[in-house]
Design brief:
Blueprint: E1 10-12, H1 13-19, E2 25-29, E3 32-39, E4 42-50, H2 54-57, E5 65-71, H3 79-89
Antiparallel strand pairs: 1-5, 2-3, 3-4, 4-5
């Protein structure tokens, strides 16, 4: 089933955390950020990479800009499967 969810191309961990519901998650995973949230008929997932780092701009990691690498086309039965997809894509 097609996932209908709008992940922004450029954002921050802080903004993602404000967007996802209490069923979702925003997880820093090395130099990537894994995101899942509930959507119509299941969970969606996305992987972001840091565009800037705390060392470069003096900000905390949650405030640094992120760029969308990939988002799921499908929906998952739960958040765990969505995060597993993210971890595979983040390798």
């Amino acid at each position: 089933m097609k996932a209908y969810y709008n992940f922004e191309e450029i954002t921050s961990m802080e903004n993602l955390q404000l967007k996802v519901s209490s069923y979702g998650a925003v997880l820093k995973y090395g130099d990537k950020v894994l995101v899942t949230d509930i959507a119509w008929r299941g969970f969606v997932a996305a992987v972001y990479e840091f565009v800037e780092t705390p060392e470069e701009d003096g900000l905390d990691a949650v405030e640094c800009r992120l760029s969308l690498l990939e988002m799921s086309d499908e929906v998952f039965e739960d958040g765990g499967h969505a995060i597993a997809w993210c971890m595979e894509k983040a390798k």
